Amino acid sequence: MVNVGIIGGAGYTAGELLRILIWHPQAHINFVQSTSHRGHPISDVHRDLLDETNLMFSEADFQAIDVLFICSGHGKTKLFLEENVLPANVKIIDLSTDFRPRTNGNGFVYGLPEINKEKIERADKIANPGCFATCIELGLLPLAKENKLKEEVHVNAITGSTGAGQNPTSTSHFSWKNNNVSVYKAFTHQHLAEITETVLQLQPNFNKSINFIPVRGNFSRGIMATIYTDCDWSVEEAIEKYKSYYKNHPFVSITNIVPDVKQVVNTNKCVLYLEKHGSKLMIISVIDNLLKGASGQAVQNMNLLFGMPEILGLGLKPIGF
């Protein structure tokens, strides 16, 4: 049994973690910390958990846990780790952007199992990937593995409103989001750094631009990324290469039918679809931003850290466990 603590327990990602971990057969939640809700029932905030748990928001007890999930806002994890000393045996899974770049030697392993599974299994600290980054990277990894990224990569990706977090802003409240779509952070989105690093991990000679246009959608959850670049594979070759790359990765599927976001919402799946148009290979990638793009992937990483089947508790049936 893995004893779990959660910091920043009131947000969307923490809510998804709780929904998974309450029913995970090998996880026990020791504490869920939230400064603003201390002493209140978890179900007061995550109301769909009514009668599923008696947990209360409480103080952290680091001595009682094996792994700590940090679900605080971006920039807060560094501050938290500066202010708190954790026992040496406690593993960390951070869902913020703070430790995703690998260039600063921070000791965190980038937690994308489809490229770093063996490293994750040996790690103590995991930087959980961003949601856009996960969706786009999974669309590009087979190309990078085969050294096929020769030209610029173009990405248009739309995300649901939960990608902006639970605290309302001028561009996330209902009256602005409803019946509205908008572009933001074009060519400058913060996930570009980790996407580029991940591509370079497989194709070190890649020196072209990844042109990324993020879009805010007027739906709650999910991401659809449409990616295209020059590639000399036929579509049949591309499908074969993608299926080969992901054959041992249970949460990635290749489909021959154009996917939609509802196909993956409330799952830890990524569904990929390929088309060829002249010299261009188009890849459509869809995930749930809160699960494969955040909390589901975090639990997938926890499973790997503790030697459990990576699918355990995530909707697929493990064999022999």
From TrEMBL:
<keyword id="KW-0028">Amino-acid biosynthesis</keyword>
<dbReference type="Pfam" id="PF22698">
    <property type="entry name" value="Semialdhyde_dhC_1"/>
</dbReference>
<dbReference type="GO" id="GO:0003942">
    <property type="term" value="F:N-acetyl-gamma-glutamyl-phosphate reductase activity"/>
</dbReference>
<keyword id="KW-0055">Arginine biosynthesis</keyword>
<keyword id="KW-0963">Cytoplasm</keyword>
<feature type="domain" description="Semialdehyde dehydrogenase NAD-binding">
    <location>
        <begin position="3"/>
        <end position="123"/>
    </location>
</feature>
<dbReference type="InterPro" id="IPR058924">
    <property type="entry name" value="AGPR_dimerisation_dom"/>
</dbReference>
<dbReference type="GO" id="GO:0006526">
    <property type="term" value="P:L-arginine biosynthetic process"/>
</dbReference>
<dbReference type="InterPro" id="IPR036291">
    <property type="entry name" value="NAD(P)-bd_dom_sf"/>
</dbReference>
<protein>
    <recommendedName>
        <fullName>N-acetyl-gamma-glutamyl-phosphate reductase</fullName>
        <ecNumber>1.2.1.38</ecNumber>
    </recommendedName>
</protein>
<comment type="similarity">
    <text>Belongs to the NAGSA dehydrogenase family. Type 1 subfamily.</text>
</comment>
<dbReference type="InterPro" id="IPR000706">
    <property type="entry name" value="AGPR_type-1"/>
</dbReference>
<comment type="pathway">
    <text>Amino-acid biosynthesis; L-arginine biosynthesis; N(2)-acetyl-L-ornithine from L-glutamate: step 3/4.</text>
</comment>
<dbReference type="InterPro" id="IPR000534">
    <property type="entry name" value="Semialdehyde_DH_NAD-bd"/>
</dbReference>
<dbReference type="GO" id="GO:0051287">
    <property type="term" value="F:NAD binding"/>
</dbReference>
<dbReference type="InterPro" id="IPR023013">
    <property type="entry name" value="AGPR_AS"/>
</dbReference>
<dbReference type="GO" id="GO:0070401">
    <property type="term" value="F:NADP+ binding"/>
</dbReference>
<feature type="active site">
    <location>
        <position position="131"/>
    </location>
</feature>
<comment type="function">
    <text>Catalyzes the NADPH-dependent reduction of N-acetyl-5-glutamyl phosphate to yield N-acetyl-L-glutamate 5-semialdehyde.</text>
</comment>
<dbReference type="GO" id="GO:0005737">
    <property type="term" value="C:cytoplasm"/>
</dbReference>
<keyword id="KW-0560">Oxidoreductase</keyword>
<dbReference type="InterPro" id="IPR050085">
    <property type="entry name" value="AGPR"/>
</dbReference>
<keyword id="KW-0521">NADP</keyword>
<dbReference type="Pfam" id="PF01118">
    <property type="entry name" value="Semialdhyde_dh"/>
</dbReference>
